[in-house]
Amino acid sequence: MKDQLSGLGPTTKVLLLDQDKESRLALANDLSSAEYHIISTGLLDEAIAFYRKQAFALIILKIATSIHGGMELFQRAIEKVKECSRERADMPYTPVILLSGGTDPVNVEGAEIVGIVDHLSQPFEIAILKKKIAVFVEMHRRSRGAIVYRDSLLSMASHELKTPVTALSLQIQLLAKYLSIGKSEELMEKTFRKLSNECLVHLHRITGLIDNLLDISKNNYGRLALKLEPVNLSEMLDDILDRLKNIISKSNCNLKLNIKKHVIGMWDRLKLEQVITNLLTNAIKYGKGYPVELSIDSNGSKCQFAIKDQGIGIARDDQKRIFGYFERGEIAPQYVGNGLGLYIAREFTHALQGKIWFESEIGIGSTFYVELPL
Q: Is residue 338 scored above 50 in pLDDT?
């Protein structure tokens, strides 16, 4: 029988197995904390069922091995934990604290394999046990955070690399098609040169995106590197629009440009390209069929570019979180995406010592602004 699930706030869980109901309830109450849930049971099979379905920061086994069946329960518990640990690919190692009576005979052979990290004999101080639990709860949170971050980075890689890989695939298919037609040697050479150059451009983009994804990883640890160089915004924008010409054409968006020429700053070109590309492709996607305006201006010490669409807009409740990891507006579930484009745009803009913000209304559209120092 499941006795209790302490508290409703924290998501970190600690599993307590104790056959003695009175002792179990008292211990669960004494160990309760706002930092974690205590899930307690007196049945080994139920404890294992909990463990198979959930991730626990710690397992506490309170077993009186001197009573009839106690040693057998202890040995079964050890084997079950070992078995489940091999099954749990997401959290293969769960530490175990063993609580026993002061005179209980305990054989902890192979304990290091199972994960028994401590053995306390009664009487023991609850305060000391709570401190030990707090340590393992914090370790669990950090390890889970690392797993979530790893999965996030993999998803981000898939999202960001999809566009240039698809474009590269199309170019290679076109190249193969032209080769199979067998036209004049002069025309074939010209076509081959054009398509191969475009393939190299896409390969360059893929390499750059991989570098950017690695930069995001470094950024989270405060080690983001910038390759600063003179960048002409209008020239860079021409390159971006050339790469996006097929997407723009298919969207039926009329792109209106108001670009101030010769705006030059010391920036990381690849990162700034990614910021503009992400904002522009979002405007095209969510403002499909309507005009999209892009403007660039400067005042001597700063430059600002704005991308305005007439699309679905962003709901007020979504606006506070729209730059977050994997965040997307609730109004746009039919639009393909993973909620990473704006996150990357914000991170790279901040890395370039710039500011990014937006204005939006449902049914009217959105305007995103980026301001950078010159």
A: no
Q: How far is CA 138 from the centre of its chain?
A: 20
Contacts for 102-107: CB closer than 8 Å, 24+ residues apart: 103/66, 104/63, 104/64, 104/65, 104/66, 104/70, 105/65, 105/66, 105/71, 106/65, 106/74, 107/71, 107/75
DSSP, res 300: S
**Residue ranges of domains in the chain:** 2-124, 150-220, 228-373
Give the H or E element holding residue 366: strand 365-373
* Rounded Cα gap, residues 72 and 78, in angstroms: 10
Closest by Cα among 99, 10, 2, 108 to 51: 2
Q: In whole angstroms, what is the distance from residue 21 CA to residue 245 CA? A: 70
DSSP letters spanning 269-288: HHHHHHHHHHHHHHHHHHTT
Give the angle subtended at the CA of 330 by the CAs of 327 and 335, to the nearest 5°.
80
Q: Of the spans 5-9, 75-79, 278-282, which averages the highest pLDDT? A: 278-282
Fold that domain 2-124 belongs to in CATH: Rossmann fold (3.40.50)
Same fold across 2-124 and 228-373: no
Distance CA 100, CA 121 (A): 5
pLDDT band at 88 (very low <50, low <70, confident <90, very high): low
CATH of domain 228-373: 3.30.565.10
Which is more confident, 217 or 308? 308
- Comparing CA positions, the residue from 345, 288, 334 lying closest to residue 311 is 288
pLDDT of residue 282: 87
Helix, coil or strand: residue 34: coil
Residue 271, amino acid: K
Q: Which residues pair with 97 in a beta bridge?
A: 60, 118
Sheet bearing 365-373, strands edge to edge? 255-259, 292-298, 302-308, 365-373, 355-361
pLDDT digits (tens, 9 = 90+) for 50-61: 888 888 888 888
H or E element that contains 305: strand 302-308
Judge if pTM exceeds 0.70.
no
262-264-270 Cα angle (round to 5):
120
Please tell me the distance from the alpha carbon of residue 240 to that of residue 224, in angstroms, as a whole number: 24
